[in-house]
């Protein structure tokens, strides 16, 4: 290859590389935003009111964290919870020690079955990173049971890491399974099935 062709090829390669880097920066692929969703956990089952939580850092600071449920925008998740573990892992990122995000979410407000959330973090310069998590919702016919006297249990048994029982709620019978969830150090609803 002659010298003139090599020079043109080199200039063209630099131009293409600069263009690609520019497009990546505009699209938010700077690699400077890191996000972790700790709850809900992928594939888990939720019921009632529980958290959506995790942490986020950005080299330019975080502008906002958005929540989408099944593709619809629900609002922004508050950021600022103490996270010394993240601060230690990202000491050069602004506010890394206060990078926790969390909000209460009414899982029972969603229909029973499969759902997904998308947590989208945007830094001060518009760089974006997001996580998508699929989960299940288990719920009673009435998403909010206000009278505890209309709830009773029978046929309680344990098998492995789960507890099974029959639950009567507002005159209806349900087969219920509780599963041990290590990340919250307790039992959570794993399944609710209405008995005929």
- Largest sheet strand order: 2-9-8-4-5
By secondary-structure content and strand pairing, the structural class works out as: alpha+beta
Give the ordered list of helices and strands.
HEEEEEEHEEEEEEE
Q: Radius of gyration in whole Å, from Cα?
A: 24 Å
Average pLDDT taken over every residue: 86
**Proportion of residues in β-strands:** over 45%
Q: In whole angstroms, how far apart are the ends?
A: 80 Å
Low confidence ranges: 14-30
Task: Tell me the major beta sheet.
Answer: 5 strands, mixed
Shape: elongated
Kindly state the number of beta strands: 13
Helix content: 10-25%
Q: Count helical runs.
A: 2
How would you concisely characterize the structure shown here?
With 196 residues, the protein is an alpha+beta fold. It has helices at 3-26, 84-89, and strands spanning 33-39, 45-46, 49-58, 62-69, 72-76, 79-81, 100-106, 113-123, 128-137, 151-159, 162-169, 172-181, 186-194.
Protein architecture, described:
The chain has 196 residues and is of the alpha+beta class. It is built from 2 helices and 13 strands. It has helices at residues 3-26, 84-89, and strands at 33-39, 45-46, 49-58, 62-69, 72-76, 79-81, 100-106, 113-123, 128-137, 151-159, 162-169, 172-181, 186-194. The strands form 3 sheets. Strands 2-9-8-4-5 form a 5-stranded mixed β-sheet, with no helix packed on it. A 4-stranded antiparallel β-sheet has the order 1-3-7-6, with no helix packed on it. The chain has a 4-stranded antiparallel β-sheet with strand order 10-11-12-13, with no helix packed on it. Strand 4 (62-69) and strand 5 form a beta hairpin. The protein is elongated and about 80 Å long. It starts with a helix and ends with a strand. The relative contact order is 0.17.
């Amino acid at each position: 290859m002659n010298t003139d062709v090599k020079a043109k090829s080199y200039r063209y390669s630099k131009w293409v590389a600069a263009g690609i880097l520019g497009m990546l920066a505009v699209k938010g692929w700077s690699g400077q935003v890191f996000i972790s969703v700790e709850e809900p956990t992928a594939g888990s089952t939720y019921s009632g009111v529980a958290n959506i939580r995790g942490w986020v850092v950005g080299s330019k600071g975080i502008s906002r964290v958005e929540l989408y449920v099944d593709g619809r925008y629900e609002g922004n998740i508050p950021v600022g919870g103490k996270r010394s573990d993240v601060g230690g892992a990202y000491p050069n990122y602004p506010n890394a020690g206060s990078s926790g995000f969390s909000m209460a979410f009414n899982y029972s407000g969603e229909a029973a079955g499969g759902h997904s959330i998308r947590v989208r973090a945007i830094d001060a310069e518009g760089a974006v990173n997001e996580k998508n998590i699929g989960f299940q919702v288990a719920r009673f016919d009435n998403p909010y049971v206000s009278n505890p006297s209309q709830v009773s249990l029978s046929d309680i048994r344990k098998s492995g890491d789960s507890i099974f029982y029959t639950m009567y709620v507002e005159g209806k019978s349900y087969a219920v399974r509780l599963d041990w969830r290590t990340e919250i150090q307790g039992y959570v609803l794993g399944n609710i099935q209405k008995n005929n």
